[in-house]
Amino acid sequence: MNLKALMTLAISVIRDWRVIFITILFLILASLASYVVRYRKKPRKPKKAKPVPAPKPAKKKEKTEDEEDEAEEETSSK
């Protein structure tokens, strides 16, 4: 086989659609594999803590006359 026939054969092989398809597919897969190997997750940023609202002071319950009388009786009986 001479050089001219070899070059013609090489060019016809390179121009074949199957060779072109496989070459493109290989490049895409190699690129994807490279991305997966080098992928690093970004560190999570801590969320800003929301300030906790101050507890509301409990309303004082007004004593009724009956309760005041009971409270006086307890203190006087002691």
In a few lines, what is going on in this structure?
The chain is built from three helices and no strands. The protein has 78 residues and is an all-alpha fold.
What does this structure look like?
There is one protein chain. The chain is rod-shaped and about 130 Å long. By secondary structure, the protein is mainly alpha-helical. The chain contains 3 helices and no strands.
Record the SSE blueprint.
Layout: H1 3-14, H2 17-38, H3 65-77
Please state the oligomeric state of the protein chains shown: single chain
Strand content: under 5%
Structural class: mainly alpha
User: What is the averaged pLDDT score?
Assistant: 83
Overall radius of gyration: 44 Å
Count of distinct strands:
0
Bulk shape? rod-shaped
Distance N terminus to C terminus? 126 Å
Order of helices and strands: HHH
- Total helical segments: 3
Estimate the helix proportion, in percent. Answer: 55-70%
Describe the biggest sheet?
A: none
Low-confidence stretches: none
Key terms for this structure?
mainly alpha, 3 helices, rod-shaped, 78 residues
